[in-house]
Specification:
Chain lengths: ~325, ~270
């Protein structure tokens, strides 16, 4: 049996969703050890067990920025145990720990993986050119090899596993590489969340200005939809970062994705193209978004959205 | 690699800001891969990765506020240096470009090793990079560079402030942001949106032509270029067939309603 380690970060006191997705995949590959980052609890460890972890290494960096101390401790553990594969999610701390660990161990990182296999060598596939092609990369370094997987690449399914053995790992003093978290600020969560919503309405530059984002919200409301955005309008400060869908934002797979005034840059497409149904509204008939849309409306979002909202409001009234 | 943090308050040394930049094939043109190696085809004329403009701007603003200099460090085929000149035209002082045939097909680890060596050679108080490149988007190079330089990686910064020898950032998180601080020297990765990049002025473009650009090879840095991963195969993704595309003549919203009914959302 292959020895597979999975990095799982705590979110709101429980293992993160992407962590559970990775555990589910990992147990099809071999024996699973979870690398749990957070304050930890019996419930959290039990959940790791339910999703297939036989062992847990627990890292609690307190108010230290995790990457340097956790990578240092992990390098020590992985250096001696030499697991076949260490899986990370495409998330903030995951990427930071993975990068530092790889540099420490002098191992390549296979990034943006949407699938991973381990027969006779670690291979991972990732989408390129806006998801039109899939490249399969192969690592030729000695164990452990490091793979970073995109969210929603695997379903998260419990296996009914029992409580794992848990070992708390002491974190070293990393000297000059240390950084401290002096405060945490949560952006207010309102309405349905992007990762869970069955319907998402997203806006892009085609809206013209920040005020017009209200049209996206108006269409979303009667549909009980979450609202999303492109990097362009997030960068422009029209809406908060938490709404960003795409390569550097969230990956979503809703039943319906309505793209309003979104051209369909590669960066955005990789985050939403796996929606079951895509409806796009854009002025430019050649916009790439139309290549993935099940229904494309060539027109001005600022004409179409108010009428759509009025119709929806009337029906759901 | 360096033995002191230069303190601009004493007026002795200038703060040394290094910004990592990358020249990439113009994203507006279709990308292609070389047949056997599956490496990205890189034309002689490449552009500055758009995401790097934020790092350059951040570097320029910090250097201006704290009496510093901005050096660009880049790895990859230099080509006609158009992308590097774009960053110099924004106001960076000089550039170091590591260009070596042995670096073709480099992965994130080799790239980080080379950048770290070039940065260490140059000396630094602060290294600034984007979170990931547009063409490779591995998203781990800044962290690896920090590890090789043995300094903190202050990643995903949405704002940056320097106070004496302390760097404070707002660091993007899944739920909002954290306030994070560290002592310089440090590596920062900045998100697009940390600052609004300036457009080069005509004078900036003219000046950029005269600014020093140093070209280094792997031999100058003495780093390993062994790459322990390769693309084994490329396949077409299952194609998603485009559906109906209709012109809005005032009633297109009803087509959307019909579609929502068809998929039982309404």
């Amino acid at each position: 049996m292959a020895d597979v380690w999975v990095f799982v970060q705590e979110a709101d006191g429980a293992p993160s969703t992407i962590g559970l997705e990775l555990l589910t995949k990992a147990r099809s590959l071999g024996t699973v050890t979870a690398l749990y980052l957070g304050s930890g609890s019996d419930e959290a460890f039990a959940t790791l067990g339910e999703y297939g972890a036989a062992n847990v290494y627990h890292f609690d960096p307190g108010d230290s920025l995790p990457s340097a101390p956790v990578a240092a401790a992990l390098a020590e553990l992985a250096g001696s145990a030499s697991p076949d594969l260490i899986m990370f999610g495409q998330a903030y701390d995951d990427r930071d720990v993975a990068g530092r660990l790889a540099a420490r161990l002098s191992r390549p990182v296979l990034s943006n993986a949407v699938d991973v296999s381990i027969d006779g060598g670690v291979r991972a596939s990732h989408e390129i050119f806006g998801g039109t092609q899939v490249a399969t990369s192969e690592a030729s370094a000695p164990a452990p090899n490091i793979v970073i997987c995109r969210p929603k690449s695997f379903p998260a399914e419990p296996s009914g596993g029992g409580a794992p053995t848990v070992a708390k790992v002491d974190l070293p003093d990393v000297g000059k590489a240390a950084a401290r978290i002096t405060g945490s600020h949560a952006e207010e969560k309102e309405g349905p969340q992007l990762e869970e919503a069955a319907v998402i309405v997203s806006g892009g530059r085609g809206l013209g200005n920040a005020e017009n984002y209200a049209l996206v919200e108006r269409v979303a409301k009667p549909l009980h939809a979450a609202t999303g955005a492109t990097r362009a309008i997030v960068d422009a400060g029209w809406v908060p970062y938490a709404k960003q869908v795409g390569q550097t934002g969230k990956t979503v797979k809703p039943d319906v994705y309505i793209a309003a005034g979104i051209s369909g840059a590669m960066q955005h497409l990789v985050g939403m193209k796996d929606a079951k149904t895509i409806i796009a509204i854009n002025k430019d008939p050649d916009a790439p978004i139309f290549q993935v849309a099940d229904l494309g409306i060539v027109g001005d979002v600022n004409n179409v959205l108010p009428k759509l909202a009025a119709e929806l409001e009337q029906r759901t009234g | 690699m360096y033995d002191h943090v230069q303190n601009s308050d004493e007026g002795v040394d200038l703060m040394k800001v290094v910004v990592c930049v990358k020249q990439i094939p113009d994203p507006a043109t279709p990308y292609s891969l070389e047949p056997d190696s599956h490496w990205l085809v890189r034309p002689a004329e490449q552009v500055l990765d758009d995401t790097d403009r934020y790092g350059v701007e951040m570097g320029l603003q910090l250097a201006q506020a704290h009496e510093g200099t901005v050096t660009l460090v880049s790895m990859g085929p230099a080509g006609n240096m158009q992308g590097i000149r774009q960053a110099l035209a924004m106001g960076a002082d000089k550039a170091v470009v590591v260009d070596d045939g042995d670096l073709r097909g480099s992965d994130a680890l080799t790239t980080a090793r080379v950048l770290a060596a070039a940065i260490a050679k140059e000396g630094f108080d602060l290294v600034i990079a984007g979170t990931e490149s547009t063409d490779g988007y591995a998203g781990v190079v800044p962290q690896m560079v920090a590890e090789f330089l043995d300094v903190a990686a202050m990643t995903y910064a949405t704002s940056v402030e320097i106070d004496g020898t302390t760097v404070r950032i707002n660091r993007q998180t899944a739920t909002g942001y954290d306030s994070v601080e560290s002592e310089m020297p440090a590596v920062l990765s900045v998100t697009a949106g940390v600052v609004e990049p300036r457009y080069p002025t005509f004078k900036g473009i003219m000046d950029a032509k005269k600014k020093p650009v140093e070209t280094l090879t792997v031999g100058d840095l003495g780093v390993s270029t062994t790459v322990e991963q390769k693309v084994a195969s490329i396949e077409s993704a299952p194609e998603r067939a485009a559906g109906a595309k209709i012109e809005d003549e005032g009633e297109a919203h009803l087509e959307i309603i019909r579609k929502l009914e068809e998929v039982k959302v309404l």
